[in-house]
Amino acid sequence: MKNIIYPIICLLLTVCIMSIIGCGNSDKKEFNRLLLTLAESDHTIDNDDWKKLESYITSKEQEFDDFYENDKIDADRVKTYITEFFKNRRPATEVKFVGVGKDGYLTAKFYLERSGSMVPYDASNGDGRFKAAIVRMLNNLPNEDRNKIYVVNSSINEYPQGVRKFLSDNNIFEATKSIGDASYTDFATIFRDILDNTAANEISILVTDMIYSTKNMTGINPQKVFAEAQGMINSVFKKNVKEKSMLIIKMNSSFCGLYYSYNSPAGKKYDGERPYYIVIVSNKENIVRLTQDNKYSAFCKFKEMDGYENEYLFETSEIYNPHYSLLMSYPDINARYRPEKGQTSQIIEIGDIEAANGTSSLRLAVAVDLNGMFIDDDYLADKRNYLVESDDDIKIKEIKKINRQYITPAEKKYVKNATHVIVLETKKISTDQDVRIRLKNELPLWIEQSSSDNDSDLSSQTFASTTFGLKYLMKGIYESYSRNTEEGPYYFTLKLKFKQ
Q1: Mind spelling out the 3-state secondary structure of 71-125?
Q2: N or C: which terminus of the chain carries fewer CB neighbours within 10 A?
């Protein structure tokens, strides 16, 4: 039945598009010009862009009546038109829709792990970094009246008194001590709820020490614990990771109280620093939106929070779509070539390529905007994290910050807000070819360095910076995402076309 219905739906949408195209020619041209103004450079229609489009459509309601359903603008019809419009341009581009529709706000669901091992993070004799980070995050989220607080351990329980009361409590763990069983944390239930029940207009935030535990772990071999943790991950992180992205942020804070090692039911007194983690889950569109929507710019400044250490984004593939363009003039270029005609917003197709001055090495430069991503700056600038796919042996010579004094006035419209230059090097371009530059998505070294197989020695040099069994949980999650990719996990792909 689905095989019959889907083509019919596609046909109806196509008819609607053609009908729109056939509306008043001047109105259509004006609408298309507006689309180019809003999305030609960043390939994105965000909430502010959408409001401008809705305003124009409303002002020409009769001319755009096929955008309507039951006297209301049908977002799917408008999105389809926009998608087809940009797909049929030269070069074809893919447009993303970020925060489109309704009031444009996301509902935040905040989950606080309240287990015995978490309570000392907010001790009265601590430095307050833990509470300050939580307060900062929640205060910087708009839409406060719709945001919700959950207390999690053996179960998931909604905090009944709301965000304001939660933030005003002097000790958040004292105020929530009667909620759930704090003796262990049921990560399977927590992660399953977050993955399954974070809706399209929602973002889930979990604050946790990320220590896997069961009701009784005394005397259990740690390798058995790690195997159970990975089994739990494999059962929870299945196909739904295709639609969900997960950002994990490593933080540190003072810890003043009892610490419960994996093999001991009795806690040991510990005063010092300990890591904890902020986990953010939502669909791809919302994760991208967080760094591009001004409403969430303050919330996303995690690196400015006291205690921030590292972050990593779990993702299947192609979450980002940065603007990029080949440069025609730059000191690193050692080649002669010409841009193909018809390229208005970026240069990605060039021909007649040859090395300059008869040298044996041919170098090209690609300007790319690497801002607005939940990816570490050092990772973005490391050429070892990129893969070049091409017919000829093309390699990345280096990645450097862009020097705008070398950008000519004529190239500014192509370069736009580029932050870096990727220098490509090869001996020659021997044939017409498509070139893809991909940023690989690999588990970072800091996760291995932050993991411990034994947390019973509180005086060890690594105790203050490591988490029991962290790498096993993280590797399990990474494998779940990797299994759901078609070509391997990549954050983005830059597509170029070289012609002889």
Answers
A1: CEECHHHHHHHHHHHHHCCCCCCCCEECCCCCCCCCEEEEEEECCCCCHHHHCCC
A2: N
